[in-house]
Design a protein that fits this description.
The complex is a heterodimer of chains A (135) and B (116). Chain A starts with 22 loop residues before the first helix and ends with a helix. Chain A has 135 residues and is an all-alpha fold. In chain A, 69% of the residues lie in helices and 0% in strands. In chain A, helix 1 runs antiparallel to helix 3, helix 1 (23-48) runs parallel beside helix 4 and helix 1 (23-48) runs parallel beside helix 5. Chain B contains six helices and no strands. The model of chain B has no long low-confidence stretch (mean pLDDT 86). At the A-B interface, helix 1, helix 3, helix 5 and helix 6 of A face helix 1, helix 3, helix 4, helix 5 and helix 6 of B.
Chain lengths: 135, 116
């Protein structure tokens, strides 16, 4: 049973039988990656407003928004992977790293560098390989 | 950057605990699921560790660039795959080994960039 960790819904013991990935699943997982990356941007913005006192933590709506976006992202992901091939869907989550590069530049003035683009590209390749290995 | 490394490891431990905690018996409804989490120590520990990893990520983000830190979370995949071998006796195949090395290499590129 444990062998199915990477495939199928983690809430179910048995994986779904491999089937063509429906467009709705792709859309859901795509949405999950987008929402998750927005969550990371809120977390970053919230962290910048964080000081060494409890008040800046408890009244930090940016952090709260980040956590809500993360939760929403995981719900979309779980709904998305109910049907379809995880070899396709799993690496799609890592597209979030690409969106994050964009938000980082737009909202935090972090430049695109060759190292960042190469690093994210190499990580994406690695995750595709991992997903293929779990087929 | 060291903080993110710990964060990914904690996140991977959380995933393993959640997996061993559910065993395919999780209920469907949202409220039932919520109560179920409190009845299963492993599941509860899993979610607690998830929370901890988010806290660590937030602290790391305060001091580093988002674009360098966030992709490093991909290391979670590496730890989960490695832990799955030890905890669940999953087997490694060439794809997984090459994939693991590739992810580590990519994270290394970002890590090097963050020290400049």
């Amino acid at each position: 049973m444990h062998r199915d960790f990477w495939r199928g819904d983690p809430w179910k013991g048995k994986p779904e039988v491999s089937q063509p990935t429906p467009f709705s699943s792709i859309l859901l997982v795509f949405g999950a990656s987008l929402v998750g990356s927005v969550g990371a941007a809120f977390l970053k913005s919230g962290a910048e407003h964080l000081h060494r006192d409890l008040r800046s933590l408890l009244t930090n709506w940016r952090l709260a928004a980040g956590v809500v976006f993360f939760l929403a992202s995981s719900i979309l992901y779980l709904k998305g992977i109910k049907k379809g091939e995880l070899t396709v869907l799993y690496p799609m989550v890592s597209l979030g790293y690409v969106w994050t590069l964009v938000w980082s530049r737009l909202f935090f003035g972090e430049p695109f560098t060759r190292a960042k683009l190469t690093g994210v590209g190499v990580i994406l390749c690695g995750i595709v390989l991992l997903a293929m290995g779990n087929r | 950057m060291g903080l993110v490394l710990i964060c990914t490891f904690v996140g991977a431990a959380a995933q393993i605990l959640m997996k061993t905690g559910t065993q395919g018996t999780a209920p469907d409804g949202a409220l039932q699921l919520f109560l179920y989490i409190f009845r299963s120590p492993r599941l509860f520990a899993g979610y607690a560790l998830y929370g901890l990893s988010t806290v660590l990520l937030t602290v790391a983000l305060k001091y580093g660039e988002l674009s360098l830190i966030y992709p490093v979370i991909a290391l979670t995949y590496v730890w989960v795959t490695a832990l799955s071998v030890f905890v669940f006796g999953e087997t490694l195949n060439p794809f997984k080994v090459v994939g693991l090395c590739t992810v580590i290499f990519g994270v290394g590129i970002l890590g090097r960039a963050s020290r400049k």
